[in-house]
Amino acid sequence: MRFPQGSLNATVAQRFFEAADATKKGLGGGYAVFGDEQIFLNATNSEGKPYSGLDDASFQDGLSRAAVSFGSPKPMVSSLGNATARFIGNDWQRSTRGEDYQTLLGGSDGELVRKLDEISRCYAFLLAKTADSKGWTKDE
User: Maximum Cα–Cα distance for the chain, whole Å?
Assistant: First the structure.
């Protein structure tokens, strides 16, 4: 969802999330915010079954209907699409620093882990920049 420039803050994001959940229960799984965009993902399990209980068309329809009925600031659907992600298991009690992840990805010195570290640093920078521009604190 894209909101008018400078209008998306923690309160608006949470209000829209609650409105989307009220539109279709499966939309209440969570979201991420980057700049003026609020992102909803229809994640699936390893068998391809959406955790939301909604197929992609119903998920997208619910977000579109929530946007139409939402008050101010007025969001719009910015883009729809499919992405593939893999969630790799890690025994967090035994491997508190994600060692199981790293092993499955080629080891802590492997190229993939180095690339993920770079992405992580970029993500942390962008998150901090957005939080600063929105006046968010760690408690929000």
Answer: 50
